[in-house]
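Illustration 12: Redoxin domain-containing protein.
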Amino acid sequence: MLKKIIASVALLSLITVAIVQAMDNESKGNDEKDALGGLKIGAKAPNFSLKTLDGKQVELSDYEGKKVMLNFWATWCPPCKKEMPDMEKYTQQAGDDVVVLAVNIDPENDVQAFVEDNGITFTIPLDSQSAKNPVNERYKILSIPTTYFIDKKGIIRNKVISAMTLKDMERNINSMQ
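Figure caption equivalent — predicted structure in token form:
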């Protein structure tokens, strides 16, 4: 009986130590990453340079002074496809101080046909998985669609990890200064 009590106390102690160490390691982890994955709200958005679907080069820093809705998506993703019509509507009604960048993470699929079939006019940067340091890895994208809302100073103000409606987009952009 005494052996069982000692064994139970020892096991409980080991579990407690493991939990405390795990929590300590988590708190010492990357301050720019949050618990849901991705970059932390309040962090500076990493700059990137990508070619767009129409062959132009685009950098996030080109849009400093504007609000940016930075979306990560793919043509094979049903929730991504679902939010595209609302993203297009939002683009049409947004003012000059808002930019929509929809980074396609799988440009090997036929992005051009998808864009043409759906009447998309917003900017589509292409992020290749075969690149040395894909942008979606720098933004810690774990699932798509994921959208970052970046303020005029380049600070991440919100992140949505799911498909959005037009109202979601409006609310997130309007909540930024």
